[in-house]
Write a structure and sequence with these properties.
The chain is mainly alpha-helical. It contains 7 helices and 2 strands; from the N terminus they run ααββααααα. A hairpin with a 2-residue loop joins β1 (30-34) and β2 (37-41). The termini are far apart.
Length: 203
């Protein structure tokens, strides 16, 4: 209660006009409440002082992000990628995201080119036919182009299994990771051998 009472008294004195506050000082009378007890104190040193009350503008506060604070303090990014040894699980997770991004960009590029391009997609296929490349070369190109799709499909199915709370042991993580890599490679090679990209008719 004493703290609350002191707060209201000081708040009241703070809103007094300067002339009224000076009169109290000139009379050498000032009431201070401390520890819940009233004590009459003399403020002779303040009798000849001039008190001015004015509104001060608050200093501007520049918001700083967590990254800016770390830069000012000289802190390195933590955890940092350079301190970790590459692992199968982390590399496959990064590759899954990269292949998904690549497939998304390719889909948008093909769609926008077909919609607003000056040529049709068939025209670009005809230009591909004129490239000096044998069957093995085309097979390699189709395998590289098909790997993002095959890996994203197989690794995505692996992550869907994780969502069902299955195969969550460390050994199972690595086992399914190796299986996904093998299946992705086989599917990519199959795409390179089967899917016609050059447009040649197979007899």
């Amino acid at each position: 209660m004493s703290k609350i009472r002191n707060y209201f008294i000081w708040d009241f004195l703070r809103h007094l006009e300067a002339t009224m506050f000076q009169r109290l000082l000139n009379k050498n009378i000032f009431i201070v409440f401390m520890n819940g007890k009233n004590s009459l104190r003399s403020y002779a040193t303040l009798r000849n002082s001039s008190i001015k009350m004015k509104i001060m503008e608050a200093p501007a506060i520049t918001p700083k992000t967590y990254q800016h604070k770390n830069l000012e303090l000289g802190r390195a990014l933590s955890p940092h990628l350079t301190i970790y040894k590459p692992q199968l699980t982390s590399m496959m997770s990064i590759t899954l995201r990269m292949t998904g991004f690549a497939l998304g960009v390719a889909t948008w590029a093909i769609g926008l080119t077909s919609l607003w391009g000056s040529h049709k997609m068939e025209d670009y296929v005809e230009k591909l036919k004129t490239l000096p490349m044998n069957d093995y070369g085309w097979m390699a190109v189709k395998t590289v182009l098909g790997f993002p799709f095959s890996f994203h499909l197989v690794a995505g199915a692996r992550h869907l299994l994780f969502d069902t709370a299955r195969l969550m042991e460390i050994k199972q993580f690595y086992a399914t990771g190796y299986v996904a890599l093998v299946l992705s490679g086989i599917m990519a090679v199959a795409i390179g051998m089967v899917v016609p990209l050059k447009g040649e008719e197979r007899q």
